[in-house]
Design goal:
heterodimer, A: alpha/beta, Rossmann fold, 2 domains, four-stranded antiparallel sheet, globular, B: three-stranded antiparallel sheet, 14 helices, about 5% strand
């Protein structure tokens, strides 16, 4: 039988069990994972403690594999993984401090949201009453208190994601791992979930969240990990990476009824080296200093007197970022 | 748009009075309850349970029909009279004549032996006129019956056969109906996917992602299944006991004497269902691709062993040793042992079938079981339970080992 890791008594500090207090929440040490001949993760090392970290990568980059290894669903083929100093595949003890939201859409559709969270809370050793109280609290936190008694099968995609987040928060974890929590959600649900994640980060939790959409992660955090083909491509502050990106060729797309006139107006700008007209209502500006152009563009548009209905940055996405980081290699 | 309001406060700190057992109890109850609720929501559970109930009711209706129809006696000695030597049932059932070599003046009901010359009245040479000597071996089995002339020449077959069929029905129904058909097929259909089904449905990570050992999840899931299966069997066996108690042979309103054997059937079913469910869960875990094939092969093996065991049940130790490789064997041994304990005259009655003829012998022989592995029914009862518990524990360990290493992709 498992030892009572949470037992406290006289002469012992009245605090929850902690494996190794000084250990980072996540420590990934030269971890690789193979699926037969296919490499899912290739020699990844990182340590994360505190704050919100976004894991970015295209589909198949190894994001989910990394998260599954971190939460002990998969065993690394090589290397070591430590969650609060403990191997999560061998020992479920770190799960006391972990909340995990899987990318899987599968849930117990016959349960109500409240039942789902309450039942899983009881697996943390809570009494029925404690679990229900906590479940109501976290459902309120994610904005589902009014539909807690509805069957999950009748929830929208966004509500399902939020109830999954609620179940991950029910044990008040120190580390929350969210695998594509915004996937398939409508804009309102996305905003709500992003607010929840930001709030949790502000509360001092360590949060790891994956996405393949740069703008989503950007709205949540600046601290990112970029994976590509199973390898760790970059680790650090998104802002710094963006500054580097500013000085590589970029396109800005403007929708206007008079693209040629607007093109004539912006072409003299020293950072703009070309303009193109893909169709009669669009203008593409080519630049090698994105921030400069963005700073001056409103003034140039006003000065030209041409109406502009939309401004887009087609190169401001993960593909472009990856393209830059790998220097054209795939 | 909903905005987070107040941060979660975390689970309440534990009190000193709480132990590891308190938390384990909570987790065990949570998973077992969850499993039961999950079963209740599945249509397959109701379908399989309903089919089981219908089968039992149909068999019981046949039993009621058989008992209501009765069995006609026949004129063994062709004297135009039937049953003139009766069955002496009450005397046979007394302790004095059970399980030991004994003689008694009890069977010349019509006095045709006593009408003979005195020197012709004691063919069996026991010094007593017009009686029957029952010869038992050291195991308590009736080996022969030596009757004086005109004694028991026309016993009451009707009374004997009804009793024999009634008892055979209970034991046979317990073994084939409850242990084999329902006892194996219900766990086969409902328990095999206890873990595997969750994995296939992509929901297992909700359970294993909690601070609870996978081995515990396995055990508590099985506990949840048993929490549903055992009451189901209690209901069916209670129904069977009521029907056979009310419609069984005898003058009393209810045959309370049979409750013991039904209790034995219940215990046997409990342990057999537990063992099968753990074995099937483990098969589902060890061989995710071929789990159902393994389960099917085991079912065929169990059926074969049960048929072999039944065919040779009264005979050699070699057959017993062979069939003891199966799970169902130990379940049937619990029923056999209970029969020996509850019906003290069971061996005696089997011997009496020699008097009545092959028809009666077959009715008992079909479900008859000599004690194994010892001659003590109590010891056999305990040994059978221990063997089933051991097999269950062994498969729990195998299942745990497979589950612990299982990656959840």
């Amino acid at each position: 039988m498992m030892p009572d890791l949470n037992q406290v008594g006289e002469g012992q500090p009245q605090q929850e069990w902690q494996a190794i207090p000084e250990a980072p929440a996540i420590m990934v040490d030269h971890v690789s994972k193979w699926y037969g001949q296919v490499i899912g993760l290739n020699d990844v090392s990182l340590a994360i403690s505190g704050g919100v970290t976004g894991v970015l990568g295209m589909n198949g980059a190894g994001k989910s594999t990394l998260l599954k290894i971190i939460v002990g669903r998969l065993r690394p083929s090589q290397g070591q993984i430590r969650l609060f100093g403990t191997d999560p595949f061998k020992n479920p003890a770190p799960y006391h401090r972990l909340g995990y939201v899987s990318e899987s859409e599968k849930m117990y559709d016959w349960m109500t949201g409240l039942d789902f969270v309450t039942t899983l809370a009881r697996l943390h050793g809570m009494t029925r009453d404690e679990a229900k109280e906590r479940a109501e609290h976290v459902l309120d936190f994610v904005g589902l208190s009014d539909v807690g008694h509805k069957e999950i099968g009748k929830y929208s995609k966004g509500m399902r994601q939020r109830v999954k987040i609620a179940h991950a928060l029910v044990n008040d974890p120190d580390l929350i791992v969210l695998d594509e929590p915004l996937q398939g959600c409508d804009p309102l649900a996305r905003t709500t979930i992003m607010n929840v994640i930001r709030e949790l980060g502000a509360m001092g939790k360590t949060i790891l969240v994956t996405s393949h959409i740069l703008s989503e992660i950007e709205r949540i955090t600046e601290q990112i990990v970029i994976l590509h083909n199973g390898r760790l491509l970059a680790l650090g502050n998104l802002h710094s990476i963006r500054e580097l990106l500013d000085h590589i060729p970029h396109r800005i797309l403007l929708r206007t009824p008079n693209p040629r006139e607007l093109g004539r107006a912006v072409l003299p700008h020293p950072s703009i080296y070309g303009v193109r007209f893909p169709n009669p209502e669009e203008l593409i500006i080519e630049t090698n200093n994105l921030s400069d152009v963005h700073q001056d563009l409103p003034g140039m548009i006003v000065q030209s007197g041409v109406m502009v209905t939309a401004i887009e940055n087609p190169d401001d996405n993960l593909e472009s970022l990856l393209g830059y980081l790998i220097g054209g290699r795939s | 748009m909903m905005q987070p309001t107040t941060p979660p406060t975390g689970p309440p700190k534990r009190k000193l009075s709480e132990t590891v057992w308190t938390k384990l109890d909570r987790k065990a109850t949570a998973i077992a309850e969850f499993t039961m609720r999950q079963y209740r929501k599945k249509r397959s559970t109701w379908a399989i349970g309903g089919v089981g109930l219908i089968l039992i009711v149909i068999v019981l209706l046949f039993y009621i029909e058989a008992m209501s129809t009765g069995i006609e006696s026949w004129d063994n000695d062709d004297d135009g009279m039937v049953d003139e030597d009766g069955s002496d049932w009450e005397v046979w059932q007394s302790d004095e004549f059970a399980s030991r070599s004994v003689s008694g003046p009890m069977s010349d009901d019509d006095g045709d032996c006593m009408a003979l010359d005195p020197f012709l009245r004691d063919d069996n040479d026991d010094g007593i006129d017009c009686n029957v000597v029952y010869i038992f071996n050291s195991k308590g089995e009736l080996t022969s019956i030596e009757a004086d002339p005109n004694v028991d020449e026309d016993p009451n077959e009707s009374e004997f056969l009804e009793e024999a069929m009634h008892r055979s029905f209970i034991i046979g129904f317990g073994k084939f109906g409850y242990l084999f058909v329902l006892g194996m097929f219900i766990p086969m259909f409902l328990a095999t996917g206890l873990i595997r089904g969750e994995q296939e449905a992509g929901t297992l990570h909700y359970l294993v992602g909690k601070p609870i050992a996978r081995a515990e999840i396995l055990m508590y899931r099985v506990l949840g299944f048993l929490g549903l299966a055992w009451p189901y069997f209690i209901g069916l066996i209670t129904l069977s006991a009521l029907v056979t108690g009310i419609f069984g042979p005898g003058d009393s309103i209810f045959r309370f004497s049979d409750l013991g054997i039904w209790f034995g059937v219940l215990i046997a079913t409990f342990f057999t269902v537990m063992t099968y469910s753990i074995v099937f869960v483990t098969f589902g875990l060890v061989g995710p691709r071929f789990g159902y094939v393994a389960v099917f092969l085991l079912a065929v093996f169990e059926l074969f062993m049960m048929l072999v065991g039944t065919a040779g049940s009264g005979s050699s130790v070699r057959v017993k040793a062979l069939t003891s490789m199966s799970i169902s064997f130990w379940g049937t041994e619990i029923i056999n042992s209970t029969a020996w304990m509850v019906w003290g005259d069971y061996a005696f009655m089997n011997g009496q079938a020699l008097l009545v003829g092959p028809y009666a012998e077959i009715s008992l022989w079909a479900v008859w079981g000599t004690p194994f592995p010892t001659t003590s029914p109590v010891a056999n009862f305990i040994i059978s339970i221990l063997v089933l518990t051991f097999v269950s524990a062994l498969f729990v360990l195998m299942g745990q080992s497979a589950f612990k290493k299982r990656e959840l992709n």
